[in-house]
Amino acid sequence: MAQVPPFGIILPSRPVITNSLTISPTQYAFSVPSSPSFSHVVIFLVPGNVLPPDTLAAVYIQFPGPNPEFKLLGAIGNDKQTAIFKVNGGGNLDNTMGVSADAMTDTDGPNDTGPDSQITIGISVEPAATVGAQVAALKSSSALVLGNKSQAQGSAVPTKVLAQRIIKNAFNFLASFAGQTTVGGEEMVPLRSFRGWWEKFERRVENDPGFLERDPDG
Asked: pTM of this prediction?
């Protein structure tokens, strides 16, 4: 019996697509024609499939062009198995994913693609902490853009620096929850503690979108 693909996508006015290309046991790709154009894409976990514990499925998109690159859209997981992404906006973030929230973001769409060009949607199953930090950086960066939209353009904080500050914030919070050690002597942190950090971090981003832009050591 053939194995059911774990993920599926839905594009407006097109049939549901589940015939993904398996890149590796944790990486999948969908190649779809850029025409007719579309502004939203739905990503979902096919019923009957479950992600491994403590993981999320990061969703990326690659548009054709002279310098194609994969851009992070967000993530889905066992707690929230479907997400809708807007892919032709001005780079604004509508929402993002915590442990149980939708992941929705805008990214630049296929503006200069030919009639036969293909768009690639990649899905990678990764540790929840890693994906959570990446999505948090994406949300924070987009929140900063929105917060500064009506202000004079200043010096932007590089994404790498934002990610480092997020990771530092998470480490400082989670260090106090370190419990028993593994066989190799590594300390373990309960997943519920990560959820607690994420909820606290998300509230702070909503209340103070620019806090990561300020140097905490300054």
From this structure: 0.58
